């Protein structure tokens, strides 16, 4: 059945619910001594993962497959990266740093925002009928976490989007009643680098928009990529708005220690109407990877009243299973399962004329990407320089010639509260360039 193994108490098909979920409870401190034994096992597994650079078998004795190779860098790449970064001071920004083509991934930062919809079926569960406010918040959490990508430490970085660069995707749901979800992104600022996005599904009555400043900093032994900004998800029939923050992405172990990519930091999901708030913390590995576990998450849902009562706690690993333990009943249930999402929650990406825009990432970086895939780094450097020089010339012209109209984004507007979607322009764009037939 195409239902999430999630929070909506429709979990009769959950396998391993007995042993796996109980052990997630142990991680929260339940049981007498079980949590300590679990921590020791996790530390041993963590050390093994650090040696291999690969996430190990399932924690409960190998019932889950090896997930993904976290570090795919070669010794040669490692040496070159160290040479490239050795003179940088701690805290230096990498966004505008001149990086040779061999260290570039053939994809724009803007394109990578599409991972938000990699398990887009979770949007459907947010609007299921007869959900309690707590269950709806849990569904929003599941959708938010489902957008995290299993990043790989490959010693490469994506392109910095140019001002006005756009991306657009249409995702068709398997159930015709759920329609099509459309996502449009645009680079609305170059200094600082800000990417704006808008997601909309007319049939489901759900939309989300937001903008984030996305830049990279060298922290001494890691590259940290914070996402500074808010997303706002709206369930229109209920007039409920959820504000969501996002974790930071960290590529660790550049110079020494365990190598890998991890999402870290605090995340808050809040609904003003229901007065419920979820606070999650994505735990980083310990110093040099000497303790802790990859991709660990802890958090809680609280009511927003005067007492701020704990509704339930959340724990687990976002790349495996996140569990929710109800504070009132003590019952533990799976909130999100990555492998289930991979197998059941993907949507069908539909080709539309939207990608024909001259500002689309595929057009802006097409020649660079072709050269990178051919491993023609000399030509890639030339094509990349051509894109960047052309952009600098346009910026200089706008600064010098005061008769020129100031640049404005195609789909977004800057207001007091930040960047917001121009809904009229987006509606017209959806109709003309993102229509999907069955």
Description:
With 438 residues, the chain is of the alpha+beta class. Helices cover 26% and strands 29% of the residues. The protein is built from 10 helices and 20 strands. It has helices at 17-27, 34-52, 75-85, 122-126, 133-146, 338-344, 361-364, 366-373, 377-400, 423-433; strands spanning 104-108, 157-159, 166-172, 180-189, 194-201, 206-214, 217-218, 222-225, 227-235, 240-244, 248-252, 260-271, 276-283, 296-303, 310-317, 321-326, 332-337, 348-350, 412-415, 418-421. It has a 16-stranded antiparallel β-sheet that branches. Helix 8 (366-373) packs antiparallel against helix 9. The longest helix has 24 residues, at 377-400. It is globular and about 60 Å long. It starts with 16 loop residues before the first helix and ends in a 5-residue tail after the last helix.
